[in-house]
Amino acid sequence: MTRVSALFSAKGKLSDHIAGFSPRKAQTSMAEQVEQAIENKHALIVEAGTGTGKTFAYLAPALELKTKAIISTGTKNLQEQLFHRDLPLLRKALGSNQRTALLKGRANYLCLNRLRQHRGNSTLLDGQTLSELTQVRTWASTTTSGDIGELKTLPEDARVIPLVTSTVDNCLGKDCPDLEDCYLFKARRKAMEADVVVVNHHLFFADMALKDTGFGELIPEADLIVFDEAHQIPDIASEYFGEALSTRQLQDTCRDISMLYRTTLKDAQQLDKAAEKCRMLSADLRILFPDTPQRGNWQQALRRQEVSSCLSRISESLSGLYEVVKLHLGRDKELDNLFDRVSEMRSRLTTLTDTYQTGVSLWYETTQRHLVMHLTPLSIADKFRGFVESPKRGWVFTSATLVVDESFDHFQRLMGLSDAHTLALGSPFDYAKQAMLCVPRFLPEPSSPAMRSTLLDIAKQLVDASNGRCFLLFTSHAALRDVAAQLSEQVDNPILVQGSTTKQALLQQYLDDPRAVLLGTGAFWEGVDVRGSDLVCVMIDKLPFAAPDDPLLQARIEDCRKRGLNPFANIQIPQAVITLKQGAGRLIRDETDKGVLVICDNRLVTKDYGKTFIASLPEMKRTRTLSESLAFLRALNEEQHEPVSD
Amino acid sequence: MTTVTFYQLNEESDREPDQQLSAVCHIAAAWYSAKKRCVIWCADQASAEHVDEWLWQLPADRFIPHNLTGEGPQGGAPVELAWQQQHIGRPFLINMAASVPENITRYQQIAEFVPADEPGKQAARQRYKEYQRAGCDMAFMPVNKLYEKHDG
What we know:
The complex is a heterodimer of chains A (646) and B (152). Chain A is 48% helix and 13% strand. With 646 residues, chain A is of the alpha/beta class. Chain B has 4 helices and 7 strands, in the order E-H-E-H-E-E-E-E-H-E-H. In chain B, strands 3-4-2-5-6-1-7 form a 7-stranded parallel sheet, with helices on both faces.
């Protein structure tokens, strides 16, 4: 028995110290494999079905073997759970002295220097932002961590946040007068001194791609790097290995320059003029695209005369700005930093308008007010492989959804991890007894206009049978809005719709009202953990294939074709399988959970590739008889409301 | 020429309750993997839905993409479950109904069953005669042969 398997045994420390812990074979074997990955310094990929207990399976070996570890997870919420709940519990159980730290991205920490800049200069801010600023000031005098998340009254997207936090661009770094008290700096120093650091994927890859400094120094030290929710990292990594430039960045920089002219460099009016010109031009660029936010092929957009000429004017004005700022170098630390930002943006703009590059996709997206130009590498496999291979250390990639049709190929190919050890652990749940998968008969074809009314009809029957307690998950906002509007007229259960408030708040409303129905898209397909009778039914409107007009996807498809492979089988199906597994995973969260999954897409039954989806989903009892699912739900509903006998 | 194969079913027993359905799945699977588009012709919609349920519950490694008449993509899935004559337009047919299909000679191959019960047997004999009259190539074998051939 190894040190780690001893921990997980019936007489081990976990059984002794953690209430409700009992040895589970899958969890123990994952922990043993993690132990080996640490000792032999290799990469390990583990799919651990819901309920395996994967968190303990990687944390316990890391603590027990006194490993310097970085744990990266999907969201800030999960980071907090790990740091505030799981790690303390395990440290206590194991009697471990390993020091732990939580590190979030830069945008989460109050920047004292930026906060001071907004003192007294309130003419540029609207009323709402001003009142938020007052809240921040009050809180700033008491906080010890500087983590904006502590300010629960502030919405996640409050406009004040970018004003009082820093970005890589506007951070003064070592030149900052507030460096001694800098919260970000302190959090990073704490992370440097810790043995186990909890980060999130965005932070990890931002640093790995050397876009930021600080935490990056930590990566070389680590003996073990764990990615939980690892199915998310191919996309996130691609994003950070690419380049982007937004009109917002351009405008923010220009605004900062104007601000500097108004506050400290009052004699340098050319600064303001040059900045203003550049700011106007970048606003013009947005107007050349349709009002409704969209994504598109940037290479194609550049072929439009007015777009390319607008860009050359932006580029010229940026060069002009560069020259003007250069004249004043050395006068002000802030301005020196702005000079670096301007020259960085200049070079990025050149890269983003170079249409002769290969192996990358150039695309853009527009928001209400801005346009973002993107360059994304088509594959990050080679780059990432190099990173994993040297220096040698333990790597763990784990998630409930990595395997497609019994194989890790898809994930390994994306991440360049062909040599990694792999382990697939089934869930301990008895899906055949606990859950039912229904694809109703005689559905219209997925893209048919008749589908909406069919969805509405099925949703109504499900809501009725389960009396709420349903998630209706959609692949498009249009379908979501349509069904939401009609459903709220036709059932009297409260209908909660994504977008009306934040995800957390909506979930709380759902939990507070036992008859509520929740309708959501993307965000609710993963990372939602509603247990027991609070969620007995999940309806999915369509197989979640990525939108074929997504420019990055198109570039990848084209590239795949050029290499003689079938893009549908190699890219689109695996991606949709992982997404569907995530969505389906919302239903059964516990050994006693029961429920029905209804997928309103008959391609699951009629197409050859239905097999790949079926083979990748947990083994639920399958039916095509909707009435059977409704009966199952009614029975659950009655069970729930039976008087409890004592 | 149309080849018709009659499979003799065993006495119904607890040990193998759904032998006809198993055989239907077996033949449909073989035709599907040989890319032969087939139709399973059922007595009525209820029996078609019963077969549908059965196919849908096969283990993933024996998955057979199929549709009922009235659903599915244009041109249908590799296997179609039908209960109305006019929809049958495929060269391979598995007959679970009590009568023979129209236009017998349009089919390349037809699979048929001889139930163990007396009325069923009678109806099968009747169908056998009709196929013979239409000039089909006839074959007859116990249903177990189906699996032997496959395994051997």
